[in-house]
């Protein structure tokens, strides 16, 4: 432990993806400025949370997805309070209290507490074997149950739910996705892509129960889940349930110490909370009214936050269009920007029914504002760039959907005319 | 073993050998021993083998759309003709035949019509190409006899090519001239043509003459020759008549500067031409359609011949007026007499000739007066005077001027019989009876080329389906009509022998046509017959005619014809300000029924087009490669604009070939004025007043298909046959609201496309249908003249039809219309966010010696977003390292 005391103390609460990225970014800017401590509730170093899906599917192991192990903390002279929860913050004394009763002083504090899976509040939602999917603990529990249970329902046809369903299916379970709407990934895909996706997943043996609003969950005398009942009278017999119905930002700690919160911890453009000594990044924040559920904005925020911690003070966080993709081996789905009911928009679509490739680009004027890709997502990144940079695509409109390789900007075109021309 | 025959196309009449490849497919090569071409072939000749396909062939007789047996068809035709003859007399029936028929076919048709039906209503499409030359020769020499031969092209010191795009229309002759000029650079070539054609490549002087002014130019020449003492008074005195009259009318055209002004030529150029002509003895004037297809074509021919007579340059080595005929057997038809104004074997309708021929044929009711010439013939059909017409091997609904009227006539006729090798032509559509004729490559007989050379055409393959030789079909019909004993032919040789015998009736007359030595030819001799020029009498040098000054007229003297330039029959006006010229292009033949089947020939000029000078284009708002609407008082057409300064201002050139089988809106015959030469009856196809404007389609489309899809009925369409595909260039008017419905209609399928592309703003739709064997059809359609349609890479799209299956990258690229060449296969996607593939990463690692994932990230961005692909990038680093 560093006892010099001359350096200001920087404390991180949460060693998930956004927090640790902030730390990494800071270390590339300056490694000497702070005395750094990290309080992490999980009993493991920093790992790539999004890779929990391939772990569940048996394609990766926990070891594969570790980003920073204990050695890394040691080598960087970081005090790591592993497996400890921060339970209180004294902003006057600038102390963080942990679950084991330690008081850790700070000059600067970064809250990166992420979020907690949301359990739909129906009767039986806390029965045995009704799980969520957020961390290694959850994955281990699912893997264990999959060995002696057979029928599982995944409630929620979003990214997380589908990845869970796929993983459990690959573990040999009989999986039904229960979705409250008429198309899966309804926030990430349009109807066509959604239909194609559902079809591909059905081919993998996953079943779907659409427009199914869960009314209650029933259990046996051992309090183990046995069936789902839906509002329209349908029901489903199960012996395991995974709820993937969204997340709630972890704000209690912030709230309890008097920081301003709404649905998330309120931050300004440099990721400061209402207390200038306290920053927040990742899924726990609310920036300009917006909550976040993906790593990309968390990483952007991390860059800004680190920049300020290093006292460079030039970066500001600007929300960018987001791209999502589904991580199910053999399935390629991508979406970015706005693509549903966009005012004054035009669409370019491409559909190869035999290959199951579908692309939709949404344009407003000469700008790309959204893209949905299914099957062939190779150009997703490029479309995403065009959306973010608001590039005028009018010169390449006719070729746009075929991707970067097919689009020659006029000034480039004259340099490499094809031989045939 | 190779089969020696002749090319199916132009009047050069090249000798060919048809070989059989190891896989049984035919291959065509030039015949090294044939005196027309000595082994060389042009693009059309070399691709003849492509036309030996059964594609589109008429394979069995049809009556009113239903398959019939030959017996049924022959008796239907015979009864139909007999009934109409009985009810309305012999002049109520007509044959319209073709320079593509062999001499034997012609002979039997002519004999049946003139000798037994008793009418002279048999005319031929040769009417459209050289009847003016025939008439000019007859007026000057007393007989339709070409005095020159091909060798003259090599030994002449001055070759005047007038109204002849020799380079494209008689390619092998052009090659011979070009080769000769290379050897003797002193040899001069003058090209007289309103257009700067490909022939000008070898021209020392090009005179871009104003259309219709040729008589003035050559009259001016005659005046110049006289004024400069360059005529041959002794020759004129000894061998000619009528010089004074001809000279007087020539001089009335004006002096050199006046002539130059009237012809819209520079005075210096005209003077150079006149000087050269005057100074050079060995002068050969070759003329073709540019002279013949005119309301004054015969006079033009005579104006040329007058200059040669005045200088005694007829039938001398390297010196003659030389008509280059268009078709492979136009000459054979003329020898037989298959024109309405001849009887047979160069004999006419005077009593003596009629008596000779009817005696020879033992015909009870021989025709005694000329019949109707092509244009009049179809007018008579339209007027209901001619009730039955039998069209053989030609496509008048396309090729005759005012073609719309021909269609009307065909619709009106009581009985239309078409014998053709192709099932669907613009003409056959209107026929009650379709008779399958043997096609080129299957036919047996003889043809005569432009230099009077008779060559054998020998069938190399069996006729497709139930097709028969035309002479045989005619023989059978003659028998069914009751004339069996007069038509006893069993083989082509039987017919030829009789034809040769008939020509010997000319022996003691002033006429030269005499196939004397061949009149007893045996089957074996006929089969082995080598190419030979007529007259074929022993002891007679038939290389050139009239070199001795002894002509075919009763007096033995040649006639000067006094002619005056009359210009064109329908001059341009304020309402119709442009002059439309028509002609051939290099790689198509006539109405494309065969050449369009040979993919290589469709690459040169794939679409119908109109050529126009840049200034005229600007004036009329025409843009290169865009569509133009042409209109004349007789019809209209739509085609692609080709802006070129090889044109004179105010003039348009349109190829004659395209028709409703291969195009829509491009039948140029519809626009052409029906004016004809009063002597020859040949139409003025080289000049029609018209107007032109840019044409804005409501939609354009390009489609390529493996299937031979019917040509859509839209305003503009061109169908181009490729090796394994058909390409369609389309444009139309009408609603573009439901482009998908339009796409289905164009592609002739209800099936949902395998791949489709839509753009809601440009409303541009692209679709492709694929099956197990690869690409079936791809189609791009958009409103107006959408960019993608113009820019689609046709060559690349075409190449996809050679493939059994499309590569993934090709499939992806297909609807972009752009070749993915240069687009690298980047391999399996590793970083999905930035679309970076395995191969791209490996390449970067090798190229830049990258050692860790962060470096890769810096170069390619891969792994710099969520980083979940970093482990795979690390694997690749290991793999590469
Ligand atoms: C299975 C799965 C798959 C996903 N796939 C994708 C994807 O493909 N793409 C994508 O962009 N996003 C994906 N996400 C979302 C992504 O993982 C999150 O957006 C990201 O992890 C948010 O980072 P964070 O640091 O804000 O929160 P987290 O990563 O959740 O980190 C918060 C950490 O803080 C700890 N913590 C909380 N409170 C306290 C406390 N009081 N004291 C100490 N520690 C505390 C938590 O235990 C946790 O370890 C996925 C998420 C899951 C669960
Ligand atoms: S020049 Fe004429 S005859 Fe000779 S090959 Fe060409 S088309 Fe045939
Ligand atoms: S892993 Fe990240 S960087 Fe790589 S593909 Fe995914 S999101 Fe992209």
Task: Give a quick precis of the structure.
The complex is a heterodimer of chains A (421) and B (881). Chain A is α/β, with parallel strands linked by helices and 421 residues long.
Low-confidence stretches of chain B: none
For the report, how would you describe the main beta sheet of chain B? 7 strands, mixed
Structural class of the helix and strand makeup of chain A?
Answer: alpha/beta
Main sheet properties of chain A: 5 strands, parallel
Let me know the number of strands of chain A.
27
CATH structural architecture of the largest domain in chain A: 3-Layer(bba) Sandwich
Commentary on this structure:
The complex is a heterodimer of chains A (421) and B (881). With 421 residues, chain A is α/β, with parallel strands linked by helices. Chain A folds into 3 domains: 9-116 and 247-309, FAD/NAD(P)-binding domain (3-Layer(bba) Sandwich), CATH 3.50.50; 130-243, FAD/NAD(P)-binding domain, CATH 3.50.50; 332-416, FAD/NAD-linked reductase, C-terminal dimerisation domain (Enolase-like, domain 1, 2-Layer Sandwich), CATH 3.30.390. Chain A is 24% helix and 28% strand. Chain A is built from 11 helices and 27 strands. Chain A has helices at residues 17-29, 52-56, 62-65, 70-75, 136-148, 159-170, 191-203, 252-256, 295-309, 380-389, 410-415, and strands at residues 9-13, 35-40, 46-47, 66-68, 78-82, 86-90, 95-98, 103-105, 108-111, 115-117, 130-132, 151-155, 174-178, 207-209, 214-219, 225-230, 235-237, 240-243, 247-249, 265-267, 278-280, 285-287, 323-325, 333-337, 345-352, 357-364, 367-374. In chain A, the strands form 8 sheets. A 5-stranded parallel beta sheet of chain A has the order 5-2-1-9-21. In chain A, strands 11-18-12-13-14 form a 5-stranded parallel beta sheet, covered by helices on one side. Chain A has a 5-stranded antiparallel beta sheet with strand order 23-24-27-26-25, sandwiched between helices. In chain A, strand 6 (86-90) and strand 7 (95-98) form a beta hairpin. In chain A, helix 1 (17-29) packs parallel to helix 9 (295-309). Chain A is globular and about 65 Å long. Chain A starts with 8 loop residues before the first strand and ends in a 6-residue tail after the last helix. The model of chain A is unreliable at 412-421 (pLDDT under 50). Chain B has 6 domains: 3-51, Phosphorylase Kinase, domain 1, CATH 3.30.200.210; 62-129 and 329-507, Rossmann fold (3-Layer(aba) Sandwich); 132-324, Dimethylsulfoxide Reductase, domain 2, CATH 3.40.228; 578-694, Barwin-like endoglucanases (Beta Barrel), CATH 2.40.40.20; 699-814, no CATH class; 829-880, BFD-like [2Fe-2S]-binding domain (Arc Repressor Mutant, subunit A). Chain B is an alpha/beta fold. Chain B has 30 helices and 35 strands. In chain B, helix 8 (214-227) runs antiparallel to helix 11, helix 11 (256-262) packs across helix 12 and helix 28 crosses helix 30 (870-880). The relative contact order of chain B is 0.11. Classes of the chains: A alpha/beta (421), B alpha/beta (881).
